[in-house]
Amino acid sequence: MTAVQGSLPILVEQDVVLARQAARQAAVACKLRLIDQTKLVTAASELARNAVIYGGGGSMEWSVVESGLRRGLRLVFIDHGPGIPDTAQALTDGWSSGSGMGLGLSGSRRLVDEFELDSAPGKGTRVAITKWI
Description:
Blueprint: E1 5-10, H1 13-29, H2 34-53, E2 58-67, E3 70-79, H3 87-90, H4 104-111, E4 114-120, E5 124-132
Helix pairs in contact: 1-2, 2-4
């Protein structure tokens, strides 16, 4: 497998499109199945949008990861915004701190194989997602 890794700033709404494209290209290069590509790209789009809207901008990093015999694609979204005061509440379907439908974080979590959320007030937010091949 070709090494797939990189990073991309996500500062404005147009960068969400670039993040989605980068996620798709990495997923294709990793030979993810089409359905898994679609799930990963959808989650990436939601998380990139969150970084812009709620985090004031941030970045997306991607890399191939291995665990035993498994290989996968990991995307990490980082922002230095206000953080999430209650991560359990933020992961509840239907809850939104803004005007959205409240499916960004919880929906993204359901679309991937692994989901990690690290956030606190004044600390910013880091979300890492992995889709295994």
